Amino acid sequence: MGGKQADSIMPRGVAIHGKSLRITFHYKGQRCRESLRLPPTKSNIKYATGKLAAINHEIKSGVFLYHAHFPESERALQFDGSCKRAGIRLNILCDEYKALKYTDIGHAAQRRYDIAFNQCLSILGPSRLIDAICPEDIMRLRSELLNTRAASTTNHYMAAMRGFLRFAEQNGYTKNHLANELRPAKKSTSDPDPFTLDEFRRAQTACTHEAHENMITLMVYTGMRPGEISALAWEDIDLVKKTLTVSRAYSDGKIKKPKTDEIRTIQLSPPALSALSGQRKFTEMLPALQVKMEGLHKKPEAIDIHPVFLPATTCRNNQFNILYRTTSIRVLWKNIVRRSGIRYRTVYQLRHTFACWNLTAHGNIAFIAKQMGHADYSMLIRVYGRWMENESCAENLRIWEALEAMGHAEKAPIAPQEIKKEA
């Protein structure tokens, strides 16, 4: 068993194992045996002796790298994990990264990441070695993305790649600082383009079904997203307390949590209450619909809901989806705008309209942000800032009137001559 020591010419630490030479040395307190895969000839024994001497010298000097001498050895992983990281290809490492990253994101986000990685790797070359990629390659990637795609699309692709490249850097797959080269592109910010009250009333008049009017009225007076409107159920509504709970959204053919994964409660205004009251006769008494609620890290849960808006109640033929898809709401809105004759803006502008109307009415910023489902009101200030600046003189007067009611009184400045008299 084991290696057999040869004649007196065989030095200590070199042995014949099977049909090849094997060397033995001690590293980090352990005995290590590695086959050289060389037949036991005199010249090979001399080579093995020199290699063993070199290894022992490097061990004493503290510069020994196991994988440098034995790159295919399983034992190299035990002492030097970097051997696994050397010479890995982009597409293979990207697959490893996705397996880790995708545990924290939903299916829709995974598809968007897949597109981003496929596009970027096709430009860089999927079979290239990660440690052979230099900053110049990443600069070329950014340049090509900017020249062929919109800034918003480019920023999405680069954000996905930044995460991947940082993963490669932090885990020693590359020594180059590649992620720093993917700076976000400056994109032309398109300001919200809200509807005026007259425009919205014309849109209401152009609806061919009362349920459609109820839908757009609820959207403009709650700021709900189209996917949230599609998944809204009567179980989420309390007409007595005048509240509506946004607990799910319908997207990509699946019921899941809202965009920010946060359940929020909306305080309903009179127009929103009126729209819901008018919608009751269409869908409230219909049988419950069983749907599967998608959840991250858990199996879909079957739930029964009574949707507020159903295509079946308004469709003129038998070809309709169970719930309103986002694309269906877009088409519906486009037809309403066309019939009304108002200038076309996307259906998402109804959400912007809710924010702008509330801000020009001097609504509380934190309250509006909570109604819309924003994590904080910084985005509200950034996106809708100019609506908050409207009527600043009137707002100043309103604030002063409130301060006066609290006891703040205007006091005229003392004239210089009065000060002299007092002295």
Question: What would you note in describing this structure?
Answer:
The protein is mostly helical and 423 residues long. 48% of the residues lie in helices and 12% in strands. It is built from 18 helices and ten strands. The strands form four sheets. It has a three-stranded antiparallel sheet with strand order 1-2-3, with helices on one face. A three-stranded antiparallel sheet has the order 4-5-8. The chain has a two-stranded antiparallel ribbon with strand order 6-7. Helix 6 (107-124) packs across helix 8. The radius of gyration is 35 Å and the shape is elongated. The model has no long low-confidence stretch (mean pLDDT 84).
- Individual helix count: 18
Q: Into which percent range does the helicity of residues fall?
A: 40-55%
Strand arrangement across the biggest beta sheet: 1-2-3
Mean pLDDT over all positions: 84
- Low-pLDDT runs: none
Radius of gyration using CA atoms only = 35 Å
SSE pattern: EEEHHHHHHHHHHHEEEEEHEEHHHHHH
Q: What composes the largest sheet?
A: 3 strands, antiparallel
Residue fraction in strands: 5-15%
Shape: elongated
**What is the terminal-to-terminal distance?**
115 Å
Strand tally: 10
Label the structural class: mainly alpha
